[in-house]
Design brief:
Elements lengths: L2 H14 L2 H8 L3 H10 L1 H27 L2 E4 L1 E2 L2 E2 L22 E4 L2 H11 L5 E4 L2 E5 L5 E3 L4 E7 L15 E7 L10
Antiparallel strand pairs: 1-4, 2-3, 5-6, 6-7, 8-9
Helix pairs in contact: 1-2, 1-4, 4-5
Length: 186
């Protein structure tokens, strides 16, 4: 492969994380890509780095959608709903004089759960049976309490433990849930 082909391949692979797309961008065949991997250890390492970057970008987008949500248009009886001025009842218009769709922010609990499960190994926690275990470095684990709650903690911008992460930082903490006696109803 030429230097230009390698550069085009790596740029595309870093952006999309898909080998076929990167081969197409570099105008090379999959066979050419495989041969270059076999003979060029620097190219192999660059491919691994580009793929890790693509995975990181996808992970950030997954987290954004799970935690911050996405705006989805509201559809009622098959029709798109639009924003109305509360005082006049007239449709609100954007800068291009188009009606502004009414949207709601939807977060995905399932996506966040999937993200947390996928990343649990990264932080030394794994699911086994009906509880979680903290890795002890030997491949085994110490039993953690089975009653945990996942709490989203957002920085208020005044520092504290998140001061080095910026004012909009958000972390996820697992806290043990205290067992409470049920209150009798009657």
């Amino acid at each position: 492969m030429t230097d230009e082909e390698i550069l085009a391949f790596l740029e595309s692979y870093q952006q999309h994380g898909v080998i076929a797309t990167a081969c197409h961008a570099a105008k090379i065949s999959f066979t050419t890509y495989r041969k270059e991997l076999d003979v060029n250890p620097d190219f192999k390492q660059d491919c691994e780095d580009a793929y890790q970057f693509a995975v990181s970008v996808a992970e950030m987008e997954l987290r954004r959608r799970a935690v911050h949500g996405v705006e989805e248009p509201v559809v009622f009886h098959g029709e798109l709903m639009y924003m109305r001025d509360p005082a006049t009842g007239e449709y609100m218009l954007d800068d291009n004089f188009e009606k502004i769709p009414f949207t709601i922010n939807k977060k995905s609990d399932k996506l966040l759960e999937t993200y947390m499960k996928a990343n649990s190994r990264k932080y030394g926690v794994s699911g086994r049976g009906n509880g979680l275990h903290a890795a002890d470095g030997e491949g085994g684990g110490n039993r953690l309490p089975s009653k945990l709650e996942i709490v989203l903690v957002q920085s208020d911008g005044n520092g504290g433990k998140l001061e080095d992460r910026g004012a909009n930082a958000m972390v996820i903490e697992a806290r043990e849930v205290e067992e409470k006696e049920p209150v009798p109803r009657g």
